[in-house]
Fold these 2 entries.
Entry 1:
Amino acid sequence: MEFFHGIINDINNFIWIYIIIAALIGLGIYFTLRIKFVQIRLLSEMIKLITSSASDKTSGKEISGFQAFCVSTASRAGVGNIAGVSIAIVTGGPGAVFWMWLIAFIGCATSFVESTLAQIYR
C-alpha cells in the first residue's frame, strides 16, 4: 500500500509542479494576446463601472457592479492568498513582489475568460 502511495504522490507532484504551472502561465499568455490585453484596454471601463455603482441602491434581486466586484474579490482572495503573499515577501523580497504582479497580470486575462464563459454557459 505504501508503494502505491509513493507512486501516486510522485505523479501528483510532477503534475502540480511542472504541468499545471506551465499550462496556467501558457494559457494566461495566450488569453492575454488573444483578447488583446483586456487588462489594460478595459481598465478605464472597469473603474467607471465600479465607481459609478458604488453608491447606488438596488431593489429586488439585482446587484450593482460594485457588489458584483466585492463578491468576486471575496471569493477569489482567501486566507491562503493573504498568508502566501506575506510569506513570499518575507522570503523573496522585492523580486517576489515583481513576479506576483507579473503572474497576477497574466492571471487577469484567464480570470476574464473564466468569468465570461461562466456568464455564457450558466
Note: The mean pLDDT is 88.
Entry 2:
Amino acid sequence: MGCGWLGLPLAKSFLDEGYTVHGSTTSEKKLSILKKEGIQPFLISLSEEGPKGSVLHFLKDVDSIIINVPPKLRGGNRENYVEKIRGLYNAIKASSVQKIVFVSSTSVYGDIDGEVTEDTIPRPSTESGRQLLVTEDIFGNDSELQTTIVRFGGLIGPNRHPVTMLSGRTRLANGAAPINLIHLDDCINILKNIVEQGWWNEVFNAVYPDHPPKAKYYSMEAKKRGIPVPDYSKDAAQKGKKVLSGSLILVKKYRFNTSIHN
C-alpha cells in the first residue's frame, strides 16, 4: 500500500523472488508504470471518510500487506491521518488479510535524550509522531491480526539525503546530537525479512548502527557532494536521541548492508 520512493523498489524486489505483488498508487499516470514492472496496479486513495478506489480487489487473495503511507502534516497540511488509516483498517478487517507490516517512524519517540530502544516509552513531540503512535495501536491492539511495526529512522538513498536541505543554512542547532538514518536498501531488506522469516507481532527500530554528530556528518556529506557546508551553532552538550536497533541486531541477527556514509 503506497508505491512511492520506498514502496516501488520494495515491490520490484519481491517480484524478483517470484511473489505476486499488488501495488497501490493515488496517480492514474503511475498505473501504467506499475503494470510495466509486473506489479498488479490499483488506484486507491485514503481519506478520512474511508478508502476510495478498488481497495477490496487490492486486498483479495493477499497474504500480507505492507502499509507504507506516511502522514502529510508538513507545511499547511493538517490531515487526520489516524482516521485515514482507520478506514483502511476497517477494509482489512472485512478481508481475509491477517498479516500486517505498518511502516512507522522513530519520530514517535519525540525529543528523548540518550539511547532509545524498543522498550522505551514513546513520547512524540510532533503532530506527525502523535498520529503515527495512535495508528500503530489501531493494528497492534488487535489480537486477531499479526502486526509488525517498523520504526524507520531518516530515509536516505537515490536522490534523497537530508544534507541537500541543510546545505548552506546557518546557525543550525544541536550539532552535537547523534544522527539516526537508514539507507533504502536496508529498508527493503528488513521489510522482506519480516515477511519471509515470519517476524510477526514485533516492534522494530530500524536505524543504521552508526550515530556520528550531526555537524560532523552533514559537513562531510556536503563536501562529498561539492555543496555548501551547513553551519551549526557551537554547543558542547550532546543532546538528542540515539535510536538503537536492538531487536533487529541482537535478537534477529540482522546485519545492515548499506552504510550511511556511501
Note: The first helix runs from residue 7 to 16.
